[in-house]
Each structure stands twice: as C-alpha cells, then as structure tokens.
Amino acid sequence: MEHIRLPKVENVRLIDKISSRRASVGTLYLTATHTIFVENETEIRTETWVLHSLVCSVEKQATTTTGSPLLVHCKNYQALRFIIPQERDCHDVHVSLLRLSRPGAQRYEELYCFSFHSNSDKEVRGQAWDFLSLKDEYSRMGVPNHLWILSPVNRDYKVSDTYPAELYVPKSATHPVIVGSSKFRSRGRFPTLSYYCKENHAAICRSSQPLSGFSARCLEDEQMLEAIVRSNPRSDFMYVVDTRPKLNAIANRAAGKGYENEDNYSNIKFQFIGIENIHVMRNSLQKMLEVSEAWSPSMSEFLEGLESSGWLKHIKAVLDAGIFIAKAVAEDGVSVLVHCSDGWDRTAQVCSVASVLLDPYYRTLKGLMVLIERDWVSFGHKFSHRYNHLDGDPKEVSPVIDQFLECVWQLSEQFPCAFEYNERFLITIHNHIYSCQYGNFIGNNQKERTELRHQEKTHSLWTYLWENRTDHINPLYRPDHSQTQGVLRPVTAPYCFKFWRALYNRFDRGMHPRQSVIDYLMAIREETQQLEEQLVSHEEVRQDRRADDIGYVPNHTLFPISCTTFDQDHLIEVAVLVLVFFLILCSVIHPRK
Amino acid sequence: MEFAELIKTPRVDGVVLRRPFLPTVEGTLCLTGHHLILSSRQDNTEELWLLHANIDAIEKRFVGSLGTIIVKCKDLRVIQLDIPGMEECLNIASSIEVLSTLDSVSLMYPLFYRPMFQVIEDGWKSFLPEDAFKDLESMTEEWRLSDVNKDYSVCSSYPPLVAVPKDVDDDTLRKAAAFRHGGRFPVLSYYHKKNGMVMMRSGQPLTGTNGRRCKEDEKLINATLRAGKRGYIIDTRTVSVAQQAKARGGGFESEANYPQWRRIHKAIERSSILQESLIKLVEACNDQSHSMDRWLSKLEASNWQTHVKEILTTACLAAQCIDREGASVLVHGTEGTDSTLQVTSLAQIILDPACRTIQGFQALVEREWLQAGHPFQQRCSQSAYSNSKPRCEAPVFLLFLDCVWQILRQFPCSFQFSQHFLVLLFEHTYASQFGTFMGNSASERSKLNLSQKTVSLWSWVNRPQEVERLSNPLYEANCLVIWPSVAPQSLLLWEGVFLRWKRSSRCLDEAYDEMVHIIQYNKELQNKVNNLRRQLAQLETEEPLLQTP
After folding, report:
1. Which pTM value belongs to this model?
2. Taking a C-beta distance cutoff of 8 angstroms, is the pair A208, A252 a contact?
3. What is the dihedral of CA A462, A467, A473, A479, to 10 degrees?
4. Where is average pLDDT lowest: A17-21, A22-26, A522-526, B134-138?
5. What are the backbone angles phi and psi of residue A29, rounded to the nearest 5°?
6. How distant is the Cα of A200 from the closest Cα of chain B, in angstroms?
7. Contact B74, B423 (CB under 8 A)
8. How many CB contacts within 8 angstroms connect chain A with chain B?
9. Which segments constitute the Myotubularin phosphatase domain (chain B) (predicted)?
10. Residue of B12, B75, B183, B5 lying closest to B428 (CA atoms)
11. Residue pair A499/B489 in contact by the 8 Å Cβ criterion
C-alpha cells in the first residue's frame, strides 16, 4: 500500500479508442492490486478493472487545456487513455502505477498470486494442484516401459537446475552417459523425452545445443544420441533438428557452442529449421501491435504493416517446424531430437506444436493444460523473464508462448471440429500467463517455483479453468469426429494464416463479429440438454399415467430415476418436476367435481 | 445448327481430366454448341459439364503428340485436359476459343436451355416494380409510380416504371433527365420506414465547365426533403475526379444551386481499376511460392480489400445519414450504374432486415442492379484470367457480393441465406443457363423478350429444395439496423470465392454440417417435447372423467 500516492482521483475521463470524441467521466481508484475506473453515469456505473500486473507501460503525455493524458498499455492488449484534470494528480498516479505494475527484481512475493484469495483453505488449494500430474501424462504416453525409464539423475536439480526433477531417458543410457552428456550441453540440458508415440515407438526428445565449438566432441553425448536411436527399434536413424537459422548456429560455434557434427554422431540426420530468436520475435510483435493499435489505419497501411512486422511469417515458421517433426514421427516412425540454443524457447514451441498435431489428446481442454505443463512449465521455459513479471532485463522479454498459442489458434481455424476448446480458452491462458494471478507461471523453472512454495501459497490456473470449462468448450467438437482423430495435416500456404483479431484487438469490441456463432451454438446445446432431460421426465410421467390407467399404483414418493442423479445445477428443474408431479397427484387423488 | 461448323472435332477419346480436389478422370471429351463435356465409362466418377461461357482463357502445351489444354474458368477454377493427338488438341482448343467468346446474344445458352425442373413460380414475375411499389404505398403517400420511361425514351438504362415524389410531374422528370448523365434522373431507391427518410440515386448532373443548372432537377430532389430539413448528396468520386468530370460535360451539385444539400465525396474506384485489382488478387492467390511476405505484399498491391473497405465505408455513411442523422440522401457517381448501386444496395442491407432474407435479397438484386441498369453483360464478359484486352469488364457486382459476405461474417445470425447464395450469384453473373443476368438493362432484356424465351434464375432458386440448400441455419430474424465494422482487422479475404479452388474446404464444410446437425437435433427435440406436453395435457383433461365415480 505504501506505493499508492493517491488512492482516488475524481472527474477523470476515459477516452474511447474507436471514436476519440466519446469519453466517459468517472472516478479513478488505485488499490493494491487494481486500477479501477468507475463511471459517473448513475444508472449503470460501468466499472473498468485493470490488474496492475497486466500493465506493461504507463505513459504520461503533455498536459493540454483539458488535463493531463495518461496512457496505460496492458500485456493483454488493452489500452486505456485517461485524462486527469490536475497534472499533479496525473504525476502521482503515474508514479504509483509504475511501481505497482512492476515489482522489483527478485521480489516474487509481491506478485498478485501470493495475495489472490490467500485466505482460502490450504488443503483444498493443495489438492487443486494435484489436478494435473505429469507422471500420469507420461504413463498415458506409455512410459516408463522397456525402452524408456524415469531417471532420478536430476532429483535435486544438480545436473540441470532448469530441468524438472523427473526426467525420462532411454533405458540404455547409463548414469555416467547422462551426466557426461549434460556437461556437453548448454546449462546441462541433456537430451530427454518430451513426447513418446506408443504406436510406433518414435519419440520427440529435446535438449540444448551441444558445446561443440569448432571441433569439440563428447563420447557420452554421442552415446546418449545412440541410446535414443536404439530406443526406437523400428528405425535405424534419428533426426536432429536445430530450430535456429544456420547462420545463428554457426555464430554460436565461436562461443564454444554450436550444433552436432553428422560425422561424429552415428545414425543421425541433421536439419536446420530457421526460426528466429527471441529478439527478432519481440520486435516483430512490437511492429505488429503498432498496426493493430493504430487509429483507423487504411487497408494498405494495415497489410503493409502486417507484412513488414513479419509476425505471420514467424508463426508459419513455427508451424512448419512442428509439421516436419510430426511427419517424421507419425509417417516415417523416426525419433527426433529438437534443440535451439538453450532449448527452452523455440524447442518448447516446436515440440508442443508437434504434439498438438500428433496426438488428439492435446486438442482437449485437459490435454492442452498438460502439454503446457510438460513442455513449457516443467522444462524451464523462463516465464518470469519472458513475460516481464518482475522488473527485469527488457531484452529477456519475448512473446514465445504467445506464438505457440497462436499456432494452435491457426490450426483450430483450419480444423474447426478438431479442438475441444475454443479460442476463449487460448485467450484466457494467454491472459493469465501475464497476469500472475495464478502460481503456475511464476519463476523461470521448477526449482524456483518449488522454492517459492507456489503450491502452498498460490492457486492453480488449471483447476480454475477446469471448473469453468463450459465457457471454453467448442460446440463443434465431437470426440468421434473424423477431424478429431489421428494426425492433423494442416496446409501452410501463406493465405491460410490469418491475423488473430480476437487476441490482438481483444478489447476493441467494435471490431469483432457482432454475433458469435460459438455463443449461439452453446446456447442451443444447453437448451438441447434441457430438452433431453425434459423428454425423459415427460416420457416417464406419461408411462406412469398409462400405468395408472390400467390400475397400477406407482410409488409417487420417488422422483423419476433420472432426476435422482441431478447435481445442484438442476435443483430448480427438479423442483419444477416435483411440482408437476404433485399437481398430477392432486388431480388423481382429488378428482374435480 | 450453326455451331457445327465451329466444332471441327466434336469428340476425342482417352482424354485425361485433372481438376482441384477430385481424382483424375480419363474419358471421352465432347464439344457441343454450349458445353464441354467429359464423361468416363465408370459410373462412380463425376462427369464434367462446363459451359463455354464459363471459360475465361485457355492455354495449350505440347509434349510430343500429347497435347494439354489448361482451361481457366470465370468462376476462377483451373482445370487441365490432356488430349492425345496434336490435331485433335488444336481443333478442340480453337473451338473452345471461338465458342467461349461468341458475341452474338442470339447464340447464348439461356436461349437454348430448357429447364429440367418444374417451375413453381416464374421468377420473371416474382419481383415486378408495381408489386414493390405496393409495399411503399402502404407506408407513405408521398411517392408515385411514373411511367414516363415506358418506352425507354427518357432513360435507356431505367426500367419503364420508377418511383418519384408525388408532387413532381412527368414533364419535370423529362427535363431533369436531360440534365443527368445517361438520362438517369434522381429516383427513389429506398424508403426508411422508421423515420420516413429516403435514399435516391441518379447519374451525375451535367453542369459542365460553365456551371449549367436545371431548376427542374433542383425541384425534383428538393421535393424529397421535409420542411427545414437538409439532405446529403453522396458523390462516390473524390473531389478531384468530380472536378475533372466537368471538362467532359459532367460535374456535381454546387452549394449555390442546391443550398439544402450537403455534398460528401468518397473514393470508390472506377471499373477498369477494379478489373485490374481482381486480376492481381487472383494472381496473388495462385502464386505458388510459400513466402508470407510475397503473399501479403501481393494481397496489398491488388488493392481488392481496399476497395471492399471503401465501398462498405461509403454504404455505412449513406445508412448513417438516413438512420442516425435523419436526413435523406442522394447517391451518384458518374453514370450511376456501378459504384452508386454498390452503395445504395449495401446501405439497404444494413438498414432493412427484409433485404437479408432470401426473397428480399433477390428483390434487392432485381431492383437495385437489374432494373437499375447495371450493365451485367458488359461487366461480366471476362473474368480474372482473360488475355484479351478488357473493354467494359469490371467485378462491380462481385465486390458488392464480397461486401455482403463481410457483413454476413460479422452478423452470422442475421441473414436468412448462407454464403452459398452469394457464390451462386457470382457464378451466374459470369456464366449461366438462366436469362436473368443477360443484357445490360431492362430495355435490352425486353427487346430480347427474355422473360418468354429464357428461364429466370429466381425460378430455380425459389424451389423448396434450393431454398433449403441456400438457407443459413443460424438465422434468427433481426429487425435492427446492423452496423458492420470497416476496420482492416474486421475485413477478411473471401475464401469461398478466391481460395475455393486452392484449398480444400472439407474441414470447413464438415464444421458447417456439424452446426446444422446441432441445430436440427435441437429442433427435433423441441418437437418431441412439445408433442409429449400436448399428450400429457390431454391425459390431464381426460383423467377427471375417468376418475369420476
């Protein structure tokens, strides 16, 4: 609270982005967690709440006769323009917001998740974290088995402090091989299992770059890769995919890093897939946002801006890489080792995109949660750095998981029946990766999160999403639909990629379709469900009536069987049914004169 | 038949057909006067029946004695025919070239076509101006139907009957017509029931460089204003284009002579530029390279989406003047047969829920395009692939359909029809067995006696099975004005036309079927539940009788 210089400012105007002439007047409040704007309109009193942790920039503009403008940009692409009457007030709000929105480096305890519903039952909260288990996920994939085992080597984060404690490795990879290999890889991130295809034993493995320099080699690392090849009995080679542009990889050699030399590793096929680095991606997003946030751009300005940002080109590159790997695994039955530099950005993108393409499970609500938990959270994607949770190095910030979520969205546009979740689900996840409201994404790796005791002190997003899953269901999804089955084979011709308006212009309500097909279908489905229930109960009433006619007296003290299993949501319906029953009973027992 | 001499080789065996998304077929190729037919002996493969009129361009290639003809259609489909024998191939190619570019109206297919379906309602009589006027009469008495143009002498591109202000006599109309481009004096396009405001359209005034004026024209349009009210003139050209028009005898309404009107200039491009834009867009869609930069830059350079945005923006402006400002509007460009009609018809889609029904949309196309004198035959004689020099071709109507599709995307539950209807109209404007889009005006169609000699597209569309196919399952009548967003982010490339033959729509079609299934199942259940309720209610009323001792 000590950071709030001014808790309340009156007569503030909030300017509408679409038509700058429109403005609403109200009161601005600063709380420990939110900026709240309450409109003066007495009838409705519309409130706008902005979480401090979602604020990415606060800009105070030159004072004019009408007041001091304050521009607040958020990480979820909300942009607000306040006009504060007194410059002094504006200054105070500005300074307060700057501090509130960015806890100092390493001050994790200030993050919103540590104060969000902190009083709730600790036991319930702890259980909620058990909702997803990676152990279950690996066993769903079929490991451990006779080819892959759970390795205790990183139990105390000693071999790699950015890797999870539980890792799956080829059975034939011995402890010294693993440790030796890890010493030859950036940050000790040795090759380990990401996805395993039960049907044909092909696997997607991931690691960081080898410390090969110009000529160095490491026997254990070579043995490690050999062990991966051998754990796929149907194939005598594997792909090693370096997701960086070749030039970048070559440049790394000068720093004693680099890529695998095909001559040193037996039975590998080496392949570059040029996905640009985090700095290029950061600038690309920045450029794209300039167009999407522009005030009334012409069509040419928009398309030119979209092109020059390169954003869709990068999305296509990530998706193409995922397709390459999915094809190797599904069609050729060949295992793939994926890495980039550290193996926590591009590698995470490509492995998870490939998983979505390969396995229908990741196209379900729970599946996508598990996938993010596995390929991103557990494998040490640096959430706090990339999404700027704390006041850190701006060069570490980059929209890496955003690109993964967008790839999934682009796929869902091509395969509208294949995904159990809708785009709102992806947008909600995106929002909370930045919001710090839940503890899932704080810190930069599992070790840090464990030290922060996030499972004791914070809530899990996944349970929240699961409890609210009806909002996130795609009504067109059917588990038995042909699109749902098997491997997705998307077309990646450039015209198949669209600008994701629902995310990047999320708060520009006027730009979105005014009627939502999804909402319409959801309402229909809900109604259908009610009708199905009514049908059952009406049928039963009718049958009972018929039974009455032939002199059988049913036991009316019992509900129709279908109703006894109703949960709370259906209490009202049950009540109505009881009433109907009662009325019918009355008419039976007390015949009208 | 005179076609016989144009067909040197009427039949070739062993021709291989390759087309998008369908398996390769080998069979016999036949040329008739109007069709290119390929049929195989197997029953399970689909035959190809292609109207010559649908062929935009062909290319020949030879490898040894095997010839290949690439056929590029006006509906943007590209198919390939491998024809054994050089001579046969050359003969076929030259026949197609001649048959697909026949200029003579009397040889056109609709005049030869006999319907294979039962005509329930003759489409030629479905949308008569006098019927449309009856609706207007029920709302207002301020307008009358004038037959000043009954022999097409006042305006060759107008229909015989037009709605004009009641207080303006035919003499005034004749004089006003002399002052407007092509004789297109201001006539009623739309009456806004909610507030009694109107939209009119016309050709440009012929003010010329010396600022000619015409009292009758001024009287005519002022007669549409309520006392003390101002109106808006929406000129679909930029100020400078309108200025330049003066040198050629055209011009615009000056403030001095039309003090009660405010003029707004917008920038909708002229037809030749639109044609070029279509050609560039289709070329971009057919680009084989996988480069995102190249695609986006070609898409941008085609300017197609820019045109969509400009047209929609202008239509929104017209609708806004009428609905929000409560003012009457006059729309014109130069001739008043292209951009003017795009604006007036789209404004009605926005304002009038009736135009969003299947019947209402046909009525709109009939009223605002066919009767209003859009020269369909000239505009649609070539499409995006043609190598011959364009004359008057332009995708004016296609752009209108694209704009309707954009609004449909934004209000998916407010239209009774689906995009299939829009695609169907696109196809039939370029090549059709029906006479609806033949000719360039009502007078031309009447001279050709098309209503007797051809079948109307509407006769085909308004059969129950076709209506069902074109219906939008999400439709729920929406009586409101619908304001589309014209932000670049909100306007998409119309995949259903431009990518139709590039990427399979299987997954999207499946999603559509799924949606239909969900809605149908719901309706079935509703019926069942209602039936049961009725039965129960019946039992209830019978019951006391039974129980009475």
Report:
1. 0.93
2. no
3. 80
4. A17-21
5. -115, 140
6. 27
7. no
8. 171
9. 123-498
10. B75
11. yes
